[in-house]
Design brief:
mainly alpha, 4 helices, 78% helix
């Protein structure tokens, strides 16, 4: 796996963790400790990982990568919501869903867009 592809799952995990941390700070839940953080994070990471593997997100490039990312975002949120509803007794669909799609979408698409622009701006090696 090329070095830049090995970084992608780590940056995505950072985006997912940032979502939970920002949400926890917004709701004052971070005071409940690291257990709370993990309780919110694991369904998101599991949903993301399952769809990322099925869609081949970390093997694709170009247009295929963007399509796999879109599928991973929405499919991952569906799995997350099923877990939250069935295992954690949380609401099936709510504001959490919309905020998760918005934040995770902006950050995961965003870092990739910045990387693509940075690569294009770099002069070609001769």
């Amino acid at each position: 796996m090329p070095k830049h592809r090995a970084v992608a799952p780590v940056l995505d995990l950072a985006c997912l963790a940032a979502f939970v941390a920002v949400g926890g700070r917004r709701h004052d839940d971070l005071n409940e400790g690291f257990g709370w953080f993990l309780e919110v994070l694991w369904p998101i990471v599991l949903g993301w990982a399952v769809i990322a593997l099925l869609s081949g997100l970390y093997r694709r490039t170009g247009t295929g990568m963007w399509a796999a990312l879109f599928l991973t975002l929405f499919g991952g949120i569906v799995i997350t919501q099923v877990i939250r509803y069935t295992v954690q007794d949380r609401p099936w669909i709510g504001i959490f869903t919309a905020v998760a799609i918005g934040f995770i979408g902006l950050t995961t698409f965003g870092w990739r867009a910045i990387a693509v622009l940075a690569r294009r701006a770099r002069p070609a090696a001769t």
